[in-house]
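Handout, page 2. Input:
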Amino acid sequence: MHLDTARWYALVLLTAIQFRCSKCAVDNSQLDEEEILAGHSVLDTLPRYVLYDVNKPEGFNLRRDVFIRMASFIHHMNKVLPPWHRLYHWRSSNLVQDCLPWSLFFNVDSIKKSTPVVELHEFFQMNGLRPLDAQVTLQDFNVKSFEQYPDFSDKWEVAHCKDQVQKEFWNLRNLTFTKSLCISFQGISTLLADIVQELQPRTIIFDHAELALHNYYGGQEYWMIRKSMQFSKNLHEIAKEFKKKNLNQDYLCAHLRRRDFLYGHPSDVPSIKNTARQIKEKLSLLNNIKTVYVATDASKTEVEELKNYLQPNQMFKFEADKKTLNNFLDGGVAIIDQIICSQANYFIGTSKSTFSFRIQEEREILGLPVETTFNSFCGENIECTQPTKWRLVD
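Output:
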């Protein structure tokens, strides 16, 4: 799919989900007379939708996790989700990377097998330009310390807004709402169902949906939804072609996160020289593997430095050509990295990186050996803790 076509259709994935609502408030004065049939509004027969947004600085892979939380809420209550826009790691400033559909990155038909979803243009086709019934901004409770407020039970309450409330979502001025309120929220995502039950809207959007927690992280429902989140066939084909050309032998994949982690998690990021040493030590134990694939946001200078340190072993890194970058953007290139790493004979990730977490999940879904999956680099001069083994539950 070309980006121009995607943007023309405004295919932002909002996960729109039907939910039961017995007393949805409708302002019939806004409807044409022909829309009133036998005392019942046409709106009463329309599907109900829940939309959501996430804190703007959050990255691609955390947003994927929030989708699972909201899909659980949807699964239990019949409800919804939002679009991709320029993120911190999407560094190509010459590309327009806003209002992107999920179908650019994911197999939406696969997602629909576990969660009913529609793209944004489909929602507008059904809802028109009617304002959403409610916008709910989720916020933390005002708690300064555990000693002051040791209650961690699931709960919510309408409250004064602590911060500025978002007035416009995804740069869409035609997406408006008739009611806006802030709710202090603490608990799992299915608790959002209580808010919907209380407000009785036909359409609602939750802002800061990342505050809602998993119902049961790593449980059966989690993995059912997670397995449905397959990457698009186009991206799989590109990864397949790259492997056919460059990786037609066993290989180790190393995900080395640098940029923000050098400042945010400095103790978890080894130097380039130390990284090479750890990779070579692992290769010496893997017998027949002499090839390394690297997924990294390191600078070109650091990548070349790593390549030199790894000799005589071969090192490869996916570099998108102009056509691939224009069609699938920075987000698609990152996914190609994840696909290639998920299929490697051995994987080493970066501690605390959600990019590495998602690769480990993909490898679990593929049924690859645990000992080849849950590994991470050790930082400088610290005791090294390996990642928790979150095993697939069928």
